[in-house]
């Protein structure tokens, strides 16, 4: 089967459609929605901004409906807000002549349907000047992403209705009969980013992603399939009729058989058919209910409703849409080529699948064969019975391993044992009935299958010739899907970082509208730890107060006195910083530490950050101490001794002499 088109012809068709698209874009009047940095408090050292929906048209209260922000020191947070879809219901997008709501219910004509919108929220926290965290999407506690990326799960599927954008490309007239509906489906999304100084860690998750194209051309193939199967039914019915190849074999059975003393004459026969219509209906259901897929499962085609579902996860790699490099675009030219090739491959399987489906239902077509038999036994009379055969077309074609059931319909009146009679008929029936039926059935099934596949091939080829250039020329012009988008600069200015789990650019050639989903932006100062000493000159045995700032918050810091060679003096003091990264502690200079001006104090955090400051150490002067001691003692002793002695001696002497 040849379902591919000549590469040169395909290139010509793509070129024509692309020129039409570009011309339409060049003349369209579209509104450019750029993303401007958020306004922050000039005093804030760090900032965080989480947005469920990021679009420049969401200002003021509308922006608050989908975002949370924080800044340190103005508003450190943490702040969290659930998405308020009600506030966003009044927002419209202006795209040339088109004016559509931003938010939509599943069955309405707006752009975005957000699935379980109640599960979506934003988060922002800036606990200190050197740290900020922002998150958006499906979040758990403390802004953590909580969804399972393995599938859509409990959060449902977001939908982006792209159908109306075809009109803005000027190709809606062309596509009405080829592509009449275009939808992007996204599973639950989430992102988070944390800035610690100039170091940023980010994560995003996209649970699922599909681009669903509805094509009247493909849907029409189901009618072609039904008609082709009806033709196959006619072929089979004709072959099973009285004058058909199988009917003729049964009606032409004629054989005389001797079984012991009995003789049996087989003459003519009839063939009844049951379940043909039901079997063909089942074959149609097998094809229509099970999607056609390419070998890589990139594309699944439902013939019943004409939808082509493109699994965007297959374009991502081993981890699907997660773990992709920054700014990964999905609908690039090479990827669109992969999609169109996969559509060709998937649609090209319809004829082979139809043939397999036909073979799978052959056993549902029951054949009832009745052959008149005249049984006579010498001297005992004659009895007329029917030899019956219950079989299926599958048994005769070899698609079933079950054997036909042969029986006798009638009373042998004791003339001969029924088992003996049936045993004696095995060989004759094989030669006059079963062998010819099997040969004819095999040829019949091959003919019917070939006819069915040829009919479907003839119907598929022109569909591919028409569908391929439209997909190639239109998909990338309607929307560009970027996963793990990291725009530069971030939304909080030149020093900020932004990650959007998914970014949609509508009508990308004209830069009409850009919308980010699950957007997280952070900015933080590079903090340089510092310590100060008060006083910065300490006598040995005394203490100084050590104050630290700009350290990591809630982190242990070891404070140590060092000599001129950097060797420790005394025991270190361990202190834990507060939420702002600050601490205050006392550090003792061990008694006996020699005086000097080149000592230092070093504070080192367990995370590696450190700061130092100089310290002078003094000692007491021994000369001053001795002078003081001697003067005090001498004065006290001399005064006391002299006074007492002189007074006593003078008094005694004078008294004695005077008296005498």
The portion of residues forming beta strands comes to 25-35%
Could you estimate the helical fraction of the residues in percent?
A: 25-40%
Number of domains: 4
Measured between the Cα atoms of the first and last residue, the distance is 163 Å
Structure annotation, total helices: 14
Low-confidence stretches: 1-39
Q: How much is the radius of gyration in Å?
A: 47 Å
Shape: elongated
- Based on secondary structure, the structural category is alpha+beta
Lateral arrangement of strands in the main beta sheet:
6-9-10-13-19-18-17
Integer average pLDDT? 83
Number of strands: 34
Topology:
Blueprint: H1 7-27, E1 46-54, H2 61-64, E2 67-72, E3 79-82, H3 85-88, E4 92-95, E5 98-101, E6 112-113, E7 120-128, E8 131-138, E9 158-161, H4 165-168, H5 172-175, E10 181-186, E11 189-196, E12 199-206, E13 209-214, H6 216-240, H7 245-251, E14 254-259, E15 262-267, E16 270-274, H8 276-289, E17 292-293, E18 299-302, E19 307-311, H9 313-316, E20 328-329, H10 333-348, H11 350-360, E21 366-377, E22 381-392, H12 393-397, E23 405-409, H13 418-478, E24 479-485, E25 497-506, E26 513-524, E27 530-534, E28 537-539, E29 543-549, E30 556-562, E31 568-576, E32 583-588, E33 596-605, E34 610-618, H14 622-659
Parallel strand pairs: 28-34
Antiparallel strand pairs: 1-2, 1-26, 3-7, 4-5, 6-9, 7-8, 8-11, 9-10, 10-13, 11-12, 13-19, 14-15, 15-21, 16-21, 17-18, 18-19, 20-24, 21-22, 22-23, 24-25, 25-26, 27-29, 29-32, 30-31, 30-33, 33-34
Helix pairs in contact: 1-13, 6-8, 6-13, 7-13, 8-11, 10-13, 11-13
């Amino acid at each position: 089967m040849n379902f591919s088109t000549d590469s040169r012809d395909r290139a010509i068709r793509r070129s024509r459609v692309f020129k039409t698209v570009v011309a339409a874009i060049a003349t369209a009047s579209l509104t450019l929605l750029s993303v401007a940095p958020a306004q922050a408090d000039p005093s804030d050292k760090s900032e965080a901004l989480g947005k469920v929906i990021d679009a420049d048209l969401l200002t003021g209260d509308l922006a608050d409906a989908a975002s949370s922000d924080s800044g340190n020191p103005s508003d450190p947070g943490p702040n969290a807000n659930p998405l308020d879809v009600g506030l966003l219901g009044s927002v419209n997008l202006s795209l040339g002549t088109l004016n559509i709501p931003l938010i939509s219910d599943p069955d309405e004509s707006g752009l975005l349907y957000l699935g379980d919108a109640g599960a979506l929220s934003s988060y922002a926290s800036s606990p200190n000047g050197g740290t900020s965290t922002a998150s958006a999407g499906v979040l758990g506690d403390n802004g953590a992403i909580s969804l399972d990326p393995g599938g859509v799960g409990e959060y449902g599927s977001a939908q982006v209705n792209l159908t109306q954008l075809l009109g803005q490309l000027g190709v809606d007239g062309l596509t009405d009969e080829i592509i009449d509906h275009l939808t992007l489906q996204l599973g639950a999304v989430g992102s988070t980013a944390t800035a610690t100084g100039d170091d940023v860690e980010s994560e995003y998750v996209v649970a699922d992603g599909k681009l669903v194209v509805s094509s009247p051309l493909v849907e029409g193939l189901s009618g072609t399939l039904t008609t082709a199967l009806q033709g196959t039914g006619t072929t089979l019915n004709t072959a099973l009729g009285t004058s058909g190849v199988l009917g003729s074999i049964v009606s032409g059975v004629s054989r005389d058989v001797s079984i012991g003393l009995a003789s049996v004459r087989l003459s003519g026969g009839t063939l009844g058919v049951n379940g043909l219509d039901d079997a063909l209906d089942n074959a149609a259901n097998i094809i229509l209910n099970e999607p056609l897929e390419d070998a890589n499962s990139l594309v699944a085609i439902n013939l019943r409703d004409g939808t082509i579902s493109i699994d965007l996860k297959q374009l991502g790699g081993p981890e699907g849409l997660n773990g992709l490099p920054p700014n990964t675009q999905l609908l690039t030219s090479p990827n669109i080529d992969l999609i169109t090739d996969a559509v060709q491959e998937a649609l090209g399987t319809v004829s082979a699948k139809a043939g397999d489906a036909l073979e799978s239902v052959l056993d549902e077509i029951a054949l009832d064969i009745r052959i008149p038999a005249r049984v006579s036994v010498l001297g005992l009379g004659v009895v007329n019975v029917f030899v019956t055969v219950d079989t299926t077309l599958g048994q005769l074609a070899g698609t079933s391993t079950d054997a036909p059931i042969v029986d006798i319909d009638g009373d042998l009146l004791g003339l001969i044992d029924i088992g003996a009679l049936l045993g004696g008929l095995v060989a004759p029936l094989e030669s006059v009935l079963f062998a010819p039926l099997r040969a004819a059935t095999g040829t019949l099934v091959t003919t019917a299958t070939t006819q069915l596949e040829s009919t479907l091939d003839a119907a598929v080829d022109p569909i591919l010739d028409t569908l391929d250039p439209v997909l190639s020329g239109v998909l990338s012009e309607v929307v560009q899907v970027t996963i793990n988008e990291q725009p530069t600069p971030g939304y909080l200015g030149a020093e900020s970082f932004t990650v959007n789990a998914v970014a949609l650019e509508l009508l990308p050639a004209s830069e009409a509208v850009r919308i980010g989903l699950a957007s997280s932006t952070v900015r933080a100062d590079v903090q340089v730890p510092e310590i100060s000493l008060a006083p910065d000159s300490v006598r040995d045995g005394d203490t100084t107060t050590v104050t630290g700032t700009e350290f990591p918050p809630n982190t242990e810091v070891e404070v140590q006195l060092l000599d001129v060679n950097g060797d420790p003096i005394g025991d270190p003091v361990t202190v834990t910083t507060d939420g702002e990264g600050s601490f205050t502690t006392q550090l003792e200079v061990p008694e006996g530490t020699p005086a000097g001006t080149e000592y230092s104090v070093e504070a080192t955090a367990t995370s590696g950050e450190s700061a130092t400051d100089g310290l002078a150490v003094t000692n007491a002067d021994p000369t001053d101490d001795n002078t003081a001691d001697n003067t005090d003692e001498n004065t006290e002793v001399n005064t006391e001794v002299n006074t007492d002695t002189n007074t006593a001696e003078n008094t005694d002497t004078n008294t004695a002499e005077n008296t005498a």
